[in-house]
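Q: Start with the shorter request: fold the first protein.
A: Done. Sequence, then structure:
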Amino acid sequence: MPPPVRPAREEEEVREFPTLGALEAQVIQVFVDGVKVLGLPRSIGEIYGLLFISPEPLSLDDLVERLGISKGSASQGLRALKGLGAVREIDLENSRRLHFQADTELKRLVGGFIREQVRPHLESGQSKVGRLLEVASDEPDAELQAFFKSRVTQLEYWMSKARFVLPILQKVLGE
């Protein structure tokens, strides 16, 4: 009997960073893996990872050169990270360029993620769920209608719990 066929495992894409040391590259990969879980672009993980491990603030041009990404990608990533509260702008003496530094305070990072990513999704989901109940009521099959309504009610319950838990989570984290 032949061995069972297993689906091909998707190999993780690990980029090379020729201008960085081994530790820097590995730290960046940790953050790339983290942002993938959150559904954010890999460049955001790369930028934050490099800023996190860098002892000095870096300019936009430094990020572009060291990470090998486009200026547009670096600029967009920095804008997203600033919106999340994960990066601070730093003015260095004798430099006309703006520099950036990672904010390493966990409560600010989680609070920013909740504020910028989770809450807007939760708010838009509320209005969608309200409309779902109306659509479920239009189902002519009574059994199917009851099933749909029970699922929509479950969604409403989950969302009410999320609305209750998010402020507590933010308070615990100190934002």
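Q: Next, the second protein, separately.
A: Sequence, then structure:
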Amino acid sequence: MSGNKFGFTPIDEDDIKKTRRREVGPMGAAVRETANSLNESTENRVEQRRQNASDAKEYRKARDEGRVLVAVSINEILTTDLPRDRLDLSAVASSDEMDELKASIQERGQKEPIELYKDSDGRFQLKKGWRRVTALKQLYEETGDERFSSVTARVAESQSDRIDLYIDMVEENVVREDLTFAEMAQVAILASNDSELGAGDAVALVGRLYSSLHKMKRSYIRSFVYLLNELDGALPFPKSVSRNLGVEVARKLRASSGSVAVLKDVLARASTADEQNAVLDAFLADTDSERGKGKRREKVESVKYEFHVGASKITARKGECRILSGQDFSSIDRSKLQRAVEAFEAVLNEK
């Protein structure tokens, strides 16, 4: 169709259907980019806050469980809440092994953290690592070096069951087979006297404290619990008593409880670990047969002990005092030897 006098032509329906296309100007592009950036930034912040909350929760959980390492002043650590699993702490503190540990820490630093917990008053109490703490304290006192003024530790914020504290304390040394049977027995005895634990029975506690050990080892520990309880402090060097010796002496004491008093009296005269063990050996060896009854009974009155005076070895038992020496007694004038024996008897008869 041709155009009219005004120069218009009919509108093409195809042109009506075409989408109008407009280019975004610089201002529009900037606004759109800013909006997208804000949306993205808001999402990132929301995600970051969510992650921070999750991390904080995990950290608190790890801290409460004692999985976070912290530096604690050496002077803030107490060892008053739990008894130590060592019988002679002063000997350990001055031992060659302690000197070796101090040399290692001085050269390489503290490699293994100790373990602490907080008591009811919020104070740091030692659970594991008595030797490391002692080594650091000694180094700090000896050198004044600030490197040794604090200790790396795991601190359990949440309260553990009392029995778990004892188990954790001995676990490390038990695994390393570093405790004697007497020391393990002593832990059970001390735990039985812990009013907060409320156990009361040391023998029963052995099964709870040392449940990871073989039942035969637990049986040995129970024997030492009986031995230490019966002798009640009369054993001067309990760590020196071997497993077999301690178990056998406990067995014999159970069979003849009346022998305890005599054995305690003889043990009181032992001044060295060797003398102590010689007394225990003699106690085991000193048995006799009752032919009429077909039974064996202990003659505790004949328990012997031995000691040295200079180069002379003295063996004492009921009715006998034997002196073994390089001295030729037969060459000594009889009157002089008699005066020596009279002086010996005079001292024995002193009141």
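Q: Describe the second briefly.
A: Residues 287-301 have pLDDT under 50 and may be disordered. The first strand starts at residue 69 and ends at 73.
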